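Quick note —
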Amino acid sequence: MDTQLNTYSAAERTPDAAHLLDVFEIRVLAVLAEKEALTPDNYPLSLNALVNGCNQLSSRDPVMSISESLVQDILQRLMQRKFVAEVRQAGARVSKYEHRLRMVWLLEQNKLAILTQLMLRGIQTAGEIRARCARHYDFSTIAEVESGLQFLMDKFPPLVACLPKVPGTKESRYAHLLSGEDVLTRQETAAGFVSGGVIVDSSRHDRVGLLEEEVVRLRREVDWLTEQFEAFRKQFD
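Predicted structure written out below.
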């Protein structure tokens, strides 16, 4: 399958800076999208259910251990950027949360199912995506998955990339571009465990890259806290 990956400049191949996401934001969004399809009776999700989904041991790559406070901070950032909405249901004691990915990226359910699997499990072939989407969306053929992947690659900027084939393999592999193109190499080699919001990887190169990503995330948090403090201080000026 041909892709449009090489027809754009590096800056054009990935979502604009306002829509780039870090690994923890991606996990939160993917879990919301997954649970909407798999457990609609329990959706939108409470904070506790979302934390459990993020730290789930099955159907996740990498496995993470994210604290409730970190998930709450991530939700605040995602709500500010319109990726997530808070829902207050009548009679409910706690707030619940739902994603807005269909509106942000104008996706039908089949395309959202494909993207969600890539967000949850990293690089995969079309056949792997089809098998893992069975409960999320029932693709009758691999060709249907490939058509959906092509749609995601043809968006401007693309949300998915087709990676070079590994020597000795016949199937193409696909990765999301939600964190930018520079993370594709790390997606290919990362096989670590995330504890307390910090990823530990066996490769030094990957550790450095992922730590850089964590620094970016922390800077975003500092900027947000600074804005909140300034807004609070102005009340007393």
